[in-house]
Every structure is written in structure tokens, then in C-alpha cells.
Design brief:
The protein is of the alpha/beta class and 370 residues long. The chain contains eleven helices and 15 strands. The chain folds into three domains: 46 residues; 115 residues, Rossmann fold (3-Layer(aba) Sandwich), CATH 3.40.50; 152 residues, Isopropylmalate Dehydrogenase (3-Layer(aba) Sandwich), CATH 3.40.718. The termini are far apart.
Length: 370
Amino acid sequence: MTETLPGTTTATITIRARHRADGTVAVEADCTDPQGSALCTGTLAVFGEITRSPPATPERAEANGRFQDYLDAARNGPPLRVAVVHPCNAESISAAIEAAAAGLLEPVLVGPERKIRAAADQAGIRLDGVTIESTDHSHAAAARAVELAVAGHVNGLMKGSLHTDELLGAVIAPASGLRTQRRISHVYVLDVPAYPKPLIVTDAAINIAPTLAQKRDIVQNAVDFLHALGIPEPTVAILAAVETVNPAMPATIDAAALTVMATRGQIRGAKVDGPLAFDNAINPDAARIKDISSAVAGHPDILVAPDLEAGNMLAKQLIYLAGAGAAGLVLGARVPIILTSRADSLKVRLASVALAKLFAARMLPGTFIG
């Protein structure tokens, strides 16, 4: 370091060594006059810590910024009519009314009317003009919401303050009318600031230990969803702990089978590869270093977890450590099902509704009821 002092004298200080044992730092000091002649020179031992400024890093993408594209697209056309099931706390009723105010949905509030109005009062919300389907309790609310969807009076369901299992139990009941031949599954649509595009993680909320046949449905649900968002051939990484097939690790065998199933048309409209470990699935340099030749590795649109525990931990790590926003939907039924969390920001809650509307508009044409 060189410092020009007021007037004429120049001092130059050079760090030569740091002695960790006693905490001293050895420096050389030289002082010169305006003509460059030495005034003094010497070596000093001083106490202190050497600090460095952190290197400059690129600015992170705005958290949840990519969700704005979905919100803009979903504002076209009439709102999606959605049964909001048991919205009996301030958070769930606020989420529905916020989405209605944004022009994304027309809510039908299904549940005990007294509790719904009390929740609205707590949230400072007026329910003028909002349809309420009164039921005795949450179980009846789930059943009534399914009836409304089967009859075509609503084109989506939205979870309120009841438990997810209670809502989905009504959806998949043998006589519900909302079941399809497809296994239902959950998708997290993640906006990860460090990743260049939206990323789907599935299944992180419903299927605990899916079989190979159920994994096929989980993959196809996510692929069909991205088709509805305008991605004609998504890339799908089937995750495992390693990228080679190991008979002692069933997840690798399922991953390899799903890859073959895609090549033979049992999974349609996607490029599928696995098993892939997370590093070489998501990072092109990691894939290159391990000599993995793949149309998927390094840039997947969809990450398929081997089971719910792995998927849930992966999604929540991206949310809480990487700053990702996470919109959530359940797919595989005859209508999309919106799952929101009390911890979600307003933009994330609206993004979940926007994605449901876009999916319904493109996969279930003619279903809007204004």
C-alpha cells in the first residue's frame, strides 16, 4: 500500500508475513521525500487481522420475478371459478380474495358460513357479492366442493384451512367423479434466483413411496402441465443419489426404467433421463466432468424425486436456502387443485392461482365460468 501524505512525503507499507502463533503481522515500511530519496525504512511487527473485501458477485435475479410472466398471461380472459374449501382463517380467505381482486379467480367459498364470515372480519375483508356455499364442517365442505366441480359449477379447487389429506380424500374417493386413470401428484413450480428458468420439483407433498407405475403418472402429470404452459418438450431428470444403476439402490432402477419407458412412448412429450445425481442433473459442468452425455443433464425443466421425503427436503432447501419462490398445484384430477401455504408471499399465492388458470385454459378448454 502506498499513501501520499499532505505536503510531500510518500509512505509505502508492504505486508510480508503473518505469524499465526502470536497473531503478529510483519510489514516493511519505506518513506521517501518528493525527490524519491529515502527518509527511513524498516520492518515492523504489528498486531491485527488482515481483512479482504469480498469479491464482486453478479446480482441475483429478483426472487419470484419469473412468476410475473404467469400473472400477466393469466390476467387475459375471464377469471377461473374456483371452490375455496373451508376458508375459515384469515390467511386462507385473504388468499382467495386477493386472487379475486387480481382478476384471476371468482371464488365460491365452501364451508361453515359463520366461521367464514368471522375469518373475513378478522382479516378486514368484505364479502359483498361473494358466493358462499354453507356446510356444517370441513369434511362436508370438501365433499360439497367436489360436487360443484363434478357438476361444472367450478373449474378448480383451492385449499383453505382444512388439512390437505381431508381435501384430497374427497377428490380421490371412489364415487367422487373427479378421479381419472392417472395418479394425482403435486408439483412445486420453483423460481430459483440462481437457476436460469422455472424449475419443477415433483412429488413433494402427496405420494410417500411411489411405485414405478405411480412415478410414470407423476412424470406425465408434470410434463402435461408444462405443455399447458407452452413448453412442447420438457426435459425431465429422474433423481437418485448416484448417476449409475445400482441394484442395491431401488431409486436408480426405477430411474433407468422410466428413461426406457419414455423412449418407448409410455411417457409422452418429454426428454427423460436418469438416474442422475442432483449435481450432474442441475449443473452442466458437473455433468461434463463426469462424462455424462445426456439431453437432460445440466438443464432440466423437471426434477423427479425418488420419494416424498427427498422431494420435500429438496424443495424446502431451495425455498429457504436459495431464496426460491414456490407455487404449488395438485395435478391428475379433472380440475387443478391449488395448494398455498401460510408462509407464502402474496406473489407466490397469486402465482399458484395463475398457474391453475393457465392449466385449465389450455388443457380444459371451454371450462371458464364467469
